[in-house]
Design brief:
It is a single chain. The chain has one domain. Helix content is about 80%, strand content about 0%. It is built from 6 helices and no strands. The chain is globular.
Length: about 160
């Protein structure tokens, strides 16, 4: 039991929160590229992405896993993004800092999504049973390249 829920129900809640974070994050990324703040959806993105990382730590574990390291990195990026937006109001270089850290948090969520898909979807697991095979590594590399390009464009486009 986790927070009064069975592990399977808690897992479903965690996955739904993660998908909300990813979906809203993609809209926020579009907003960056269109130079739009999108305050409401951004609040949903930041909150759901924080909750995704926090709930990831509530699953039972014996030792620190790679997913925990990704969660820690995501929470650090989110703390900086939230400060850049709500404490420093995107002034000066905080605008770039916000775009980069929010994009990093979204990338990390998507990175985990791809890893989970390769672990849980039988046809993908068959392509990369250990997660070290070229189909998995190539997909993660392509995702990284896409996010680097999107982030570079977002930094250039997201202006006051």
């Amino acid at each position: 039991m986790i927070l009064g829920m069975s592990t399977s129900v808690f897992t479903l809640v965690h996955v739904v929160i993660s998908l909300i974070g990813i979906g809203s994050g993609l809209v926020v990324m579009w907003g960056f590229l269109e130079s739009k703040r999108l305050d409401g959806i951004t609040a949903i993105f930041l909150l759901s992405t924080v909750l995704t990382s926090v709930t990831g730590f509530l699953f039972p574990f014996q030792h620190l896993l790679p997913s925990h390291k990704v969660g820690i990195l995501s929470l650090i990026a989110l703390a900086v993004a939230i400060a850049a937006r709500h404490v420093y109001h995107l002034a000066g270089s905080w605008r770039t800092t916000y775009v980069v850290t929010a994009s990093l948090a979204l990338y990390l969520n998507d990175f985990v999504l791809v890893a989970q898909l390769f672990q849980k979807v039988p046809s993908l697991k068959a392509l990369a049973p250990t997660g070290t095979e070229p189909p998995f590594l190539g997909t993660e590399l392509a995702l990284l390249v896409i996010f680097i390009a999107l982030t570079v464009f977002a930094v250039k486009k997201f202006r006051s």
